[in-house]
Amino acid sequence: MSRVLIIGAGGVGRVVAHKCAQNGEVFSHITLASRTLSKCEEIRDEIEKMQNVRIDTEQVDADNVEELVRLIKKVDPYMVINVALPYQDLTIMDACLLTGVHYLDTANYEHPDSAKFEYKEQWAKDGDFKAKNLMALLGSGFDPGVTNVFCAYALKHYFDEIHYIDILDCNAGDHGYAFATNFNPEINIREVNSKGRYWENGEWKETEPMEIKMVWDYPQIGPKDSYLLYHEEEESLVKNIKGLKRIRFWMTFSQSYLTHLKVLDNIGLTRIDPIEVDGCKVVPLHVVKALLPDPASLGPRTKGKTNIGVVCEGVKNGERKKIYIYNICDHQEAYKEVCAQCVSYTTGVPAMIGAKLMCEGKWMEPGTINMEQLDPDPFMEELNRQGLPWHIIEMDPDATFEVK
Ligand SMILES: NC(=O)c1ccc[n+]([C@@H]2O[C@H](COP(=O)([O-])OP(=O)(O)OC[C@H]3O[C@@H](n4cnc5c(N)ncnc54)[C@H](OP(=O)(O)O)[C@@H]3O)[C@@H](O)[C@H]2O)c1
Asked: What is the enclosing helix (H) or strand (E) of 237?
């Protein structure tokens, strides 16, 4: 039985809080803290009504290590689940180190002033976490997160060596708006506007944003335009999956989404440097964020499914082999269960599962740990139990779901 502190009361934080409340035999006491207390209180009341579980709420500025330390000492949790923004990863990790508490997050550190994400600064804390016998589980969402576990599971049960990985992320949900993002608009637009990148034959290859496109036939959804992006799990998978020759990440976008984004780009509204307007400094992307629908409000109106998975190709006993592991999540079903659409659901459920396995001692290793470094089996079992069942298709090594 463990006390847990969740930081961040956005779309993902809501799901994590609901799912922890549903797993009361592990999470004996839950505190939800965020910058805006009223958001925590709204989620608290919803959980009391839907799950009949009472959680505590707190206000915190997670950019401030001293405030975090005070909060952690007051709550006295076994671990912190960080589902605030990537900007807060380092301060929350530091506060965990100062208070002797385990840490988990779902996205790697990003500095507010540069749209670049990498594990460097979090991995640099590996020695500090090891010295204090503490674990920092990095990237326990869906992608990164479940996608890393899918690769580890494929390697453990299907391959001697994996040579090619394609990660395929499709959101076929329709929220009825001309343009909206499914998670934090600022983080989403920064990610999509970055250069594409993939790893092949020992080196990173860079592309222009959205330069490479293919059409993939997603099970239960159908063919969708899928664009090559750089995604953070590639960095750790390249390091941890030995023998890898290529890894790519693909995400679906509709033509309407891309056209809106292009217009915003063309007129400078996706810029992240401050400009002066009538004597005030404003960051254009913050204005866009303020005008767009709050992703949390998309839940009740989003219909359709997501399908996120990995295709791994490699060898077993000297023979070529290829498998496709994926999960399908239904937006309306997720909303019925925890008042959130699939993008929050597919992130929040794995965050809770990672925390559950840490609290149960099934996943406990000191240091900064990426998901594929741990035994995938208990995580895969929990996915089936906690609302994210997966499917495996063993493919002919020459077959593909790519639509020619
Ligand atoms: N791995 C994956 O598959 C995956 C997928 C999607 C998202 N994510 C990650 O999940 C995290 C949460 O995403 P989301 O969609 O839930 O975002 P969100 O709806 O914008 O929620 C973020 C929450 O963090 C709070 N917050 C921001 N700055 C804070 C600060 N300085 N101190 C305390 N609280 C602060 C916000 O407070 P206010 O409400 O006051 O602004 C908000 O409640 C992000 O890191 C995102 O990158 C991961």
From this structure: helix 233-240
- CA-closest candidate to residue 138, choices 235, 270, 279, 249: 235
Tell me how far the alpha carbon of residue 184 lies from the centroid of ligand 1, in angstroms: 7
User: pLDDT by residue (tens digit) across 68-78?
Assistant: 999 999 999 99
CB 316 within 8 A of CB 208: no
Query: Does pTM top 0.85 for this prediction?
Result: yes
Contact 119, 133 (CB under 8 A): no
Q: Token pair of 121, please?
A: 């600064």
Listing DSSP states for 339-356 in one string gives S--HHHHHHHHHHHHHHH
Say whether pLDDT at 116 is over 80: no
Pocket of ligand 1 (CB under 6 A): 8-13, 34-36, 39, 60-63, 83-86, 88, 106-107, 141-145, 183-184, 187, 295-296, 343-344, 347
Helix (H, G, I), strand (E, B) or coil at 84: coil
Q: Which two structure tokens, joined as six digits, stand for 215? A: 């059409």
Q: Is pLDDT above 80 for 160?
A: yes
| Integer Cα distance of 351 and 15 in angstroms | 9
